[in-house]
Amino acid sequence: MSPHPEPEPPGRAARRRLFAEAARAERPDLALLCLLIGAEADPDLDETGIDEAQIELDRLAGLLPYSPAGGPGAWARNLAELLGARCGFGGSPADYRRLASSLLHQVLRRRRGLPILLSVVWLEVARRAGAPVYGVALPGHFVVGFGDPYGAHVLADPFAGGRLLTDEDAALLVAGATGGELTPRMLAPAGPLEIVQRVLNNIRAWAQARPEHSAVQLWALDLALLLPSRPARLRQERAELLVRRGEFLAGADELEEYAGVVEAVDPAGATALRRQAAAARAMLN
Description:
This is Protein SirB1 N-terminal domain-containing protein. It comes from Streptomyces lydicus. The protein has about 280 residues and is α+β, with helices and mostly antiparallel strands. It has 2 domains: about 10-190, no CATH class; about 230-280, no CATH class. Helix content is about 55%, strand content about 10%. The protein contains 12 helices and 5 strands. It has helices spanning about 10-25, 30-40, 45-60, 70-85, 105-110, 115-130, 165-180, 190-210, 215-225, 235-245, 250-260, 265-280; strands at about 135-140, 140-145, 155, 165, 190. Strands 4-3-2-1-5 form a 5-stranded antiparallel β-sheet, with helices on both faces. A hairpin with a 2-residue loop joins strand 1 (about 135-140) and strand 2. Helix 1 runs antiparallel to helix 2 (about 30-40) and helix 9 runs antiparallel to helix 10.
């Protein structure tokens, strides 16, 4: 591996500026942010392709009846009928093995994806149609809610084609993912940036399990670091990844910078980081 950073592909800097601006908007555009994530993985996804994906979400929303009688349950059933039954959006265990399952433009094309990306489709289509919809970040399985999250509402599972969930169903999903119990806090609405961060976490985890895709882990980290609120430790993860990729000097520099950040609260940790940096530089000898 080369000790020097790879040249940045043309257009990437502009896309990342747009991503950072969109993440800091007063009302972040969830679909745009997810599509810009997709553009990192697929350089062929240009401005025209992003517009086409947004238009497809508009088209799907136009197929829904406006303000159906029956409240939150009617909205949930109509979305399940349109997106699940008619359009075939859904997921299976095999979808967890594909990076495409975390990319919104691919999910719109393939109509397959992870629970959170299918939920993004549900959220964006329902929102455009005027539905009272919100995301629910259950541990290990993202779903959507319709209605008042703190009052009358229903939950639906886009991964299962929009199947309506009882409280017992939601509790079983949480127990299966964590072994713990469902708490009211888990049912609180997830904001756009929380959803984007979770999408990027999924991509990082996918790539981390596949060392040959370290470049994917790197761009997912780079985007996560552009979010207004993110775990500080992502900087250490990025530095260590650079070292594993053979970019020893860049990785060592970032380890030392992060050591300066944590030194006041964790002197021992800062010392360990500086040792890592020295070891990375020694690999060049």
